[in-house]
Amino acid sequence: MELILIRHGETDWNKDHVFRGKKDMRLNATGILQADAVGDALAGRVFEAIYSSPLKRAMVTATRVAKPHDMKVREAPELSDINFGLWEGLTQNEVQERWPAMYKKWVDSPAWTRFPHGESVRRAWKRVNSGLREVLFLHGTGTIVIVSHRVPIKMMTAYLMGQKRRNIHTIKHDPGAISIFEIDGVRGKPVTLNDTRHLEKLGLPPQDDF
């Protein structure tokens, strides 16, 4: 089986380094271009199924990727973004100023971080990778696509490669980027990670990991 992980296109909050989580904002103009570029890059492949987080930024990306294949996107709530709680809607700098110790813990030791009035990394890891295992269990062959968010994709990538949740910050996955795995059971051999070549050809501005 082949698994393709896609991060949704850019939103204004990505660009401005604002924590998103469960806030359901739309793609901006660049995000739409990125989603279409992903669709063009994968148009020649045959998909068994396309799954997406139910949040708009992921669903719109997934729908545009699915369009050349005339496929319906399957919503997967377990693959939704992590709940950042009170951090949502705040910039990276604002969070550092208001919760300096917790922000440092998130950066330096994410495995045991719990966001104020939000989700713990431990719980999100279990939720996301349980959803991933269910998808893999349902499909024994073919190419499966999952469209999700920065933190869940980092978690799925770490899990597939046999890493621990403490390693999620070592994994990079930019908006509109593609990662591809060859799946054997519940482990994955990476074919390509954080591939953004399809975005560079459009002359889109460089992305970062926020």
Question: What is the topology?
Answer:
Blueprint: E1 2-7, H1 12-15, H2 29-41, E2 49-52, H3 56-66, E3 74-75, H4 92-98, H5 100-108, H6 121-138, E4 143-148, H7 150-160, E5 178-184, E6 187-195, H8 197-200
Parallel strand pairs: 1-4, 2-3, 2-4
Antiparallel strand pairs: 1-5, 5-6
Short description:
This protein has 210 residues and is of the alpha/beta class. A six-stranded mixed sheet has the order 3-2-4-1-5-6.
The residue-averaged pLDDT reads 95
Instruction: Give the % helix.
Output: 25-40%
Backbone CA Rg: 16 Å
- What's the CATH first level? Alpha Beta
Sheet with most strands: 6 strands, mixed
Q: Element order, helices and strands?
A: EHHEHEHHHEHEEH
Task: Note the total helix count.
Answer: 8
Shape: globular
What is the total tally of β strands? Answer: 6
**Approximate strand percentage:** 15-25%
Distance between the termini: 30 Å
| CATH topology descriptor | Rossmann fold
Tell me the number of structural domains: 1
Low-confidence stretches: none
Q: How would you write the strand order of the largest sheet?
A: 3-2-4-1-5-6
CATH architecture: 3-Layer(aba) Sandwich
Kindly describe this structure.
- It is built from eight helices and six strands; from the N terminus they run βααβαβαααβαββα.
- The protein has helices at 12-15, 29-41, 56-66, 92-98, 100-108, 121-138, 150-160, 197-200, and strands at 2-7, 49-52, 74-75, 143-148, 178-184, 187-195.
- The protein has a six-stranded mixed β-sheet with strand order 3-2-4-1-5-6.
- The chain starts with a strand and ends in a 10-residue tail after the last helix.
- The mean pLDDT is 95.
